[in-house]
Amino acid sequence: MKYRLRAITREEHLAFVARQSSVSHLQIPSWGEVKSDWRSASLGWFDDEARLVGAGLVLLRSLPKVRRYLAYLPEGPVLDWAAADLGDWLRPMTEYLSDLGAFTVRMGPPVVVRRWDAAAVRAAVADPEARWLRDVTPSEENPAARELVERLQGLGWRAVTADGEDSAAVSQPRYVFQVPFAGRQLRDVQQGFSPEWRRSAKKTWRAGVEVVRGGYEDLGAFHRLYAETAERDGFIPRPLSYFQRMWIALRNEHPDRMRLYLARHEDEDQAAALMLTVGDHVWHAYGASPYTRTDVCPDHALQWRMMADAHEMGAGVYDLRGITDAVSGDEQHLAQLRHRLGTGGQAVEYLGEWDFPISKVLHKALDLYIARRGG
User: Fold this and answer.
1) CATH H-level, domain 183-315: superfamily
2) Which fold does the domain 4-108+353-373 belong to in CATH?
3) Of 49, 95, 184, 323, most Cβ neighbours within 10 A?
4) Contact call for residues 278 and 31 (beta carbons, < 8 A)
């Protein structure tokens, strides 16, 4: 089948998203407003009966002094990735974006490759010989994903790697940690917690930690905790204005698209996080917990309240976002991984990001530009 691709309206895009069980929060129209330093457009695939059967949010950004663009579809587009005629889906996209002036198209197919349950990851962390999650036998594997890799390569797409010679830095995490909710009662989720997590939860309750939902006016308190977390963990924080823009854009699109939670103890904010929701997929995003209060464990209280609310909303999956696939080495990383393991969830590997270089010269310039900026 030949598919026709054209720009679609915000309303068309949102109607398509509403028909899907899960779409990344990076693939909804409002995300283009959040990323205000990029141009954005909604693209739609139509079949021979003029039905909208696929959609994607594309972000466009030019290199300095170059009037051509990197066209980026983070964790998208949303289309039939199992289709035998994959080229008939992707060729119209690369041709359309080339006509817009793109020199490279980058996408992140939302296709799961492998899953490792908590027991498998714990065993890998405890094994002194284990270094990478990818070398650990998975609990579940998707054979179709391997076939998809071969088909993408045959169509001229290149896998983006963190250290590849001809690929710019990876933008979105390939490995994430998720807690499956579908078909489970909340008590079943809680029973999957590790003993350490249960003990921490009891400390939280005994200490009287209160978790509240915040509003726009509380984003400043969230950002203070987030900035302190960034200083402790050594990453560059986004400005407060970014989260204020996110709040307005996402909540104007849907009132429950974004929530803010804060954990308080003795009238002091101790931890905070954002919850993002599209369909039955809920993300715990931008966690801010700068203090190591093992006596009251505010982060455990925060996490449990958010999980309980997500379950009540009908979430099928609670997503704690990115992890690396290293299971040895840096103790700070391992502490973060152990904390997530306490929820009883799964490590999940996606297909990763892929580039289609339209101009090989400018694509190489993109690699060099991002390398100089440190990603």
Assistant:
1) Gcn5-related N-acetyltransferase (GNAT) (3.40.630.30)
2) Aminopeptidase (3.40.630)
3) 323
4) no
Between these two residues, 166 and 178, which has the higher pLDDT value? 178
Long-range contacts formed by 223-228: CB under 8 A, 24+ apart: 224/269, 225/269, 225/270, 225/271, 225/272, 225/288, 225/289, 225/290, 226/272, 226/286, 226/288, 228/288, 228/290
The residue extents of the domains of the chain are 4-108+353-373, 183-315
Are the C-beta atoms of 140 and 178 separated by less than 8 Å? no
Q: pLDDT for 241-252, tens place per residue? A: 999 999 999 999
What pTM, to 2 d.p., does this model score?
A: 0.93
Compute the distance between CA of residue 327 and CA of residue 124 in angstroms, rounded to an integer: 6
- Other CB atoms within a 10 A radius of the CB of residue 284 amount to 23
Q: How far apart are CA 28 and CA 110, in angstroms?
A: 14
**Distance in angstroms (rounded) separating the CA atoms of residues 336 and 178:** 14
Q: What is the pLDDT of residues 337-352, one digit of tens each?
A: 988 999 999 999 999 9
8 Å CB contact between 348 and 138: no
